[in-house]
Amino acid sequence: MRIVVMVSGSGTNLQAVLDAVREGRIDVEIAAVGADKPCLGLERARQAGVETFLVRPSDHADREGWNRALERAVAGYAPDRVLFAGFMRIVDARFVQAFAGRIVNTHPSLLPSFPGAHAVRDALAHGVKVTGVTVHEVVADVDAGPILAQAAVPVLAEDTEARLHERIKAAERELLVDTLGALARSVPVR
Ligand code: GRF
C-alpha cells in the first residue's frame, strides 16, 4: 500500500509509521510526506530519506488555490491512501472527492465526542473520565467520517492538557500503525 502522509507539527505519529515501515512491520510504502508549513515532521521524513513537499496557504491567492495545489501535489505520487497524521488544515470537499474513501485521519478523542482542533482540552474541560483516539476515514465534514479504529485512554485526576495528550499520543501511535497494517492487508481493522 502506497501512501502520502500529511503533517503540520512534531510528527511523532509519522515517526511511528516510518519506524514500522523501516522495520518491515507493515506492508506500506511512504511515497512522500507533505506539510502546510516547515515543521519537525518534514525533518523526520528527510532524515528517513523520504521525499517531502510543502504546500503553504500563503503561497496561494485563496483557499481554493491552496486546495487545488495540494491535490495536484498529492495526486502526483499516485497514493493508494492519504494519511493525515497531525495535519492541522481543513481540506475542501473537492479534495476529499479526489481521494474519496482513501483519506485516513487520526484524531485525539473518541469521536464523535470532541471534534475540532482542541480535542484534548475540550475533553478535560468537560470532565470526561475516559477519552482516547480515533482513526477514521475523512469525509467533507470535519472529524466526521466512518470510524476505522479507536482506543480508550483514562483521564487521571492530576492530568494537564499536555500530560493527557502525551498518553493519548502513545496510544495513537500504536493504533495508527496497527490500522495502517490492517488496511495494507485489506483486513478489517480493530
Ligand atoms: C496528534 O495527537 C494528532 O491527532 C493531533 O495532533 C497531534 C499531532 O502530533 N491532531 P504529531 O505531530 O504526530 O507529533
What does this structure look like?
The protein is an alpha/beta fold and 190 residues long. It has 6 helices and 7 strands, in the order βαβαβαβαβαββα. The chain has one domain: Formyl transferase, N-terminal domain (Rossmann fold), CATH 3.40.50. The chain has helices at residues 12-22, 40-47, 63-75, 93-98, 119-126, 161-184, and strands at residues 2-7, 29-35, 52-54, 81-84, 103-107, 130-137, 147-154. It has a 7-stranded mixed beta sheet. Helix 1 runs parallel beside helix 6. The two termini are 18 Å apart. The mean pLDDT is 96. 5-O-phosphono-beta-D-ribofuranosylamine is lined by residues 7, 9-14, 41, 85-86, 106-108, 169, 172.
Largest sheet: 7 strands, mixed
CATH class: Alpha Beta
Residue windows where pLDDT falls under 50 for at least 5 positions: none
From the structure provided, what is the oligomeric state, counting identical versus distinct chains?
single chain
Mean pLDDT: 96
Computed Rg: 16 Å
- Distinct ligand kinds: 5-O-phosphono-beta-D-ribofuranosylamine
H-E order:
EHEHEHEHEHEEH
Shape: globular
Determine the strand fraction and express it as a percent band. 15-25%
Distance between the termini: 18 Å
Helix/strand/pairing class, anyone? alpha/beta
The CATH topology is given as Rossmann fold
Number of strands: 7
Strand arrangement, major sheet: 3-2-1-4-5-6-7
State the helix count.
Answer: 6
CATH architecture assignment: 3-Layer(aba) Sandwich
CATH homologous superfamily - what is it? Formyl transferase, N-terminal domain
Query: Helicity range of the residues?
Result: 25-40%
Number of domains: 1
